Each structure stands twice: as C-alpha cells, then as structure tokens.
C-alpha cells in the first residue's frame, strides 16, 4: 500500500549555515498514529513545517496523498490539518466564526453539523459564541485543533498539542485522536509527554541534531531495546552489595530494602537462574519479587545520549585530524 506521506533525502540548511535537517527518509502509512520524539532543537518542528509547506526544503522530496508539496502545493495542503505549537488566532472572532472561516479557506462547502460535532468532541460547544479572547489557554489550544480539523483532512499534524491542557481534557483529546485514527485519519504528533506517545503511537521516530536516529514499531522498539529489572524485596535491608555478587548488574534502592537485577530481554540467557543460585550461596533471602520493563522514556533518553556521544566522538576525531 502506498504511504500517505513519503519523505526522501530531505534536508534543510538555513542562510546562516545552520543545518536543521539532514538526509531524512521516512514513510508514514495511512491510518496510523506516528509519534516523533526528540529534544528541543532536534528538528521536529522544522520537519513538520516542511511537510506542511510552511518552510522550503534545501533538498529532497515530500509527497502527501500522492501530491508533491512543492509542485502540487494546494492539493497536498488540502489533505493536511496542522496544530502548531504557537497559539495564533483572531482574538475578537467567535469560536464558531473561527472554525467556519478555517473550513472555507480550503474551499469546503458549509457543514454546520460536522463543525458542531468537532466542537462537542473538544468540549467547546458551550463556548461557540464566545470571543476567543475570553477563552483560557487550554480552550485556545483545543480551538486550534478544531480549526485544523474543520476541513476534514486525511492527515493531522499535532505539534505539542497538549501543552497547557489539563489532565482530564488531555485524556478527552486523546480519545478523539483514537477515533480519528479509527476513521482512517493519519496522525503525526510531537510531544514532551512521552508516556502519551507510549500509550498512543503505533510507531515511533526519534530525531536528534537533525538526523532521524531510528523509526520503529513501538512494541518492537521496546522489545528490542528495552531492559527488564528483577526487583527482590528483602526481609532485612542490606548496607551494601556483598563482594561475592559485585560482578553482577545489581544495585540497591535507597534504603537497602530492594535488590535490583537488570537483564537484557534480547538475550537468550538472562542469567536469572545463576543470579538466584549465587544469592542463595550468599545467604541472602527475599520475600517477594517482581519484574519491570524499561519505559519508552528511558529508551528515548538512552538513544539520544548514545547519538550525542557518537556525534562528540566524530567531532573529536575530526579535530585530531
């Protein structure tokens, strides 16, 4: 099946010489939720801005629904709904007037029933006649989403969509996103709430210093790169790890009441059996145990730090040469 978004060899270097993106290759499938993760300044917003036709690329090609974003800008843009990070609205327009105007910008015929549905889903219907200037920050954020959805796009970009939105409304918004995905809308999001990406995304892309570090199915990523911890609850706290166990990947929690063994879930031999045998030989008893997998946030931090170390190593090599 042809991807709904195809990005090939994409790069962006600004006039001052700063390279924001380099050699990005990415395909996004129709009807998936794709989470783009990366630290501030990594290139997430630049990538979204290029796909949406706001920023011109220095090199490479991008198509959306089969339309080239430069040769067929209008057709490509009509397929896209964009919720930017910055809230930008006409403060003295009404909520209803704003979403109605946004729909008309894309040449769509009036559809009051559809606009009402969107506003109700975003808990804005009761505010439809209010001027935007009277809305709270969270309501303005939800209005931005309503405007992006007003012309019924097949692709929705959410750039930090839940910033400033309270927890309850955030859950309502994600419920709506799930519904959009189920109806066939492709959702691409950037977020600092990594637990949301872990809960929502079908696939995850990690970008750092303008390079796409990896793209992976979320479940596969956690299986391939995650680690597990075996945590043993001790009947009596330990002051330190015994010397006889010092060569093992062990640590004590703060008060010494838990002994934690970390192992690689990719390995055929986790070493747990040997660990428990040696624990018994050291006369260390435990009264309970449980396992915990690494979170997506831990994996993300490790990936970014690894990429940074590799970048610094390359710079060091260039300097020595």
Short note summarizing the structure:
With 321 residues, the protein is α/β, with parallel strands linked by helices. Helix content is 36%, strand content 26%.
Classify the secondary structure makeup into a structural class.
alpha/beta
Q: Count the helices. How many? A: 10
The run of helices and strands is: EEEHEEHEHHHEHEHEEHEEEHEH
Note the main sheet.
Answer: 6 strands, mixed
Strand order of the largest sheet: 6-7-8-3-9-10
Distance between termini? 47 Å
Fill in the CATH topology of the largest domain: Rossmann fold
As residue ranges, the low-confidence spans are none
Count the domains: 2
- The counted number of beta strands is 14
Query: From the coordinates shown, what is the CATH architecture of the largest domain?
Result: 3-Layer(aba) Sandwich
β-strand amount: 25-35%
CATH class designation of the largest domain:
Alpha Beta
Provide the CATH superfamily of the largest domain: P-loop containing nucleotide triphosphate hydrolases
What is the 3D shape? elongated
Alpha-carbon Rg, integer: 24 Å
Task: Write structural notes for this entry.
The structure is a single chain. The protein has 321 residues and is α/β, with parallel strands linked by helices. The chain folds into 2 domains: 5-222, Rossmann fold (3-Layer(aba) Sandwich), CATH 3.40.50.300; 227-293, Alpha-Beta Plaits (2-Layer Sandwich). It contains 10 helices and 14 strands. The protein has helices spanning 44-51, 73-78, 95-105, 112-121, 137-149, 167-182, 194-200, 218-225, 272-281, 296-320; strands at residues 5-13, 19-28, 33-37, 59-64, 67-68, 80-83, 155-159, 186-190, 203-208, 211-217, 227-233, 250-252, 258-264, 288-293. The strands form 3 sheets. It has a 6-stranded mixed beta sheet, sandwiched between helices. The longest helix is centred in the last third of the chain and has 25 residues, at 296-320. The mean pLDDT is 85.
């Amino acid at each position: 099946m042809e991807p709904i978004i195809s990005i090939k060899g994409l790069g962006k270097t600004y006039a001052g010489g700063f390279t924001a993106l380099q050699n990005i290759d990415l395909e996004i499938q129709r009807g998936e939720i794709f989470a783009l993760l990366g630290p501030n300044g990594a290139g997430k917003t630049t990538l979204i801005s290029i796909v949406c036709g706001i920023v011109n690329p220095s090199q490479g090609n991008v198509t959306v629904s089969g339309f080239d974003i430069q040769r067929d800008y209008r057709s490509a843009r009509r397929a896209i709904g964009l919720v930017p990070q910055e809230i930008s609205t006409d403060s003295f327009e009404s909520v209803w007037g704003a979403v109605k105007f946004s729909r008309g910008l894309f040449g769509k015929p009036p559809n009051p029933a559809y606009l009402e549905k969107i506003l109700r889903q975003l808990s804005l219907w009761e505010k439809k006649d209010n001027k935007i200037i009277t809305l709270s920050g969270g309501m303005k954020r939800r209005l931005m989403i309503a405007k992006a959805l007003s012309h019924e796009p097949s692709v929705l970009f959410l750039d930090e969509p839940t910033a400033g939105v309270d927890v309850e409304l955030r859950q309502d918004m994600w419920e709506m996103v799930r519904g959009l995905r189920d109806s066939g809308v492709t959702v691409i999001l950037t977020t600092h709430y990594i637990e949301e990406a872990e809960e929502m995304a079908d696939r995850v892309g990690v970008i750092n210093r303008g390079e796409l570090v990896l793209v992976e199915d979320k479940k596969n990523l956690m299986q391939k790169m995650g680690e597990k911890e075996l945590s043993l609850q001790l009947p009596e706290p330990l002051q330190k790890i015994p010397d006889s166990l010092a060569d093992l990947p062990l640590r004590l929690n703060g008060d010494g009441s838990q002994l934690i063994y970390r192992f690689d879930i990719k390995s055929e031999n986790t070493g747990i059996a040997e660990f428990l045998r040696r624990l018994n030989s050291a006369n260390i008893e435990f009264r309970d145990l449980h396992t915990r997998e690494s979170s997506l946030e831990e994996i993300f931090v490790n990936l970014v730090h690894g990429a940074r170390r590799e970048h610094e190593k390359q710079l060091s090599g260039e300097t020595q040469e």
